[in-house]
Amino acid sequence: MDNCILRIGYLSSKLKLKALVLFIIVFAASLTAPFKLVYAVPYGDGNYGANLYGEDFPASSPASAQTCSDSVPKSAPAITLVSGKSSTEIKLTFTHATDPVTYYALEYGPESQKYIYSAANIGNHDATTYTVQKLSPNSTYYFRLRAGNGCMPGEWSAEVSGKTLGRFSTKTLDLTNTTITPVETATSSGKPAPVATPVSPGYDVDVTVVNTKNEPVLGAKVTIHSDPQEATTNQDGVVHFKGVAEGSHTLLIAYGDYSGEESIFLNGQVKIFKITVTVEEKNVVFSKPALSVIAVLMGAVILLTAIIFIRRKRA
User: Fold this and answer.
1) Contact 216/233 with Cβ under 8 angstroms?
2) Ramachandran category for residue 7: left, alpha or beta (phi over 0 → left; psi -120 to 50 → alpha)
3) Which of 288, 284, 293, 285 is CA-nearest to residue 29?
4) Is 62 domain-assigned?
5) Which of 122, 137, 165 is the last residue of a domain?
6) Mind listing the pLDDT tens digit for each residue in 123-149?
7) Burial class (CB in 10 A: 0-12, 13-18, 19+), 108
8) Taking the model in full, what pTM does it have?
């Protein structure tokens, strides 16, 4: 009888172990399963905060000019920087449109010129950043932005693309902060010269790379696309590029075994752009879903080990 009971207990423990192993396999598989593409959640930085402007919806135009007496914004904003912040988030940095402006609206999608998602109001007159959430990992998205004044929409900006990070990456150079500053040339009197189309083809672009302590990074390899130019930072952390075309470019920075990239957009009637990039080395980067799965797997392994230990002790 005792042998029967022990046998039944042994079989029961085997079934439990098999069920636990199956559970672990299912969760491990979820680590590589693709996410479903969903609407972004309204989110903002700076003064206008998160979840302040309502929910996103498929793009539609505000009231037509025939029934709206508000003045149209005098210029379109420009998206100057697109940064993949995580496997599901992309941060946009943009310039102000010319007044009158009361809000900014966004459209975007996974294909160029096909904007299947929108955020009707991503910030007020003073907004300059917006973070799009709930995107798919390791995926490219295309964005355009416009200002509005009351019921009157303005012109759309040029399209700019950016890519989310993967769920798991190693040796990542995190570009934690980037600023892009257009520089006006000066006349011999020392006063700013009227802005004009660059005399030579393209722009002069100075890129300064610093670490999180604001110290210059020597020996970082900086590449700017679309027509690739490559240079290595000097002791001041600076590289110089000439003849960079107007439009969207990928800025790639590599330092030792670490690398990172983001998208920049250059336009305007100036000659020089100064870009400062703060970088931070990260050995391993996990997305939030990946961390959740790993936590569950670790818990399952601990539980499995405990069951085996208890069964062996009883035997």
Assistant:
1) yes
2) alpha
3) 293
4) yes
5) 165
6) 999 999 999 999 999 999 999 999 999
7) buried
8) 0.69
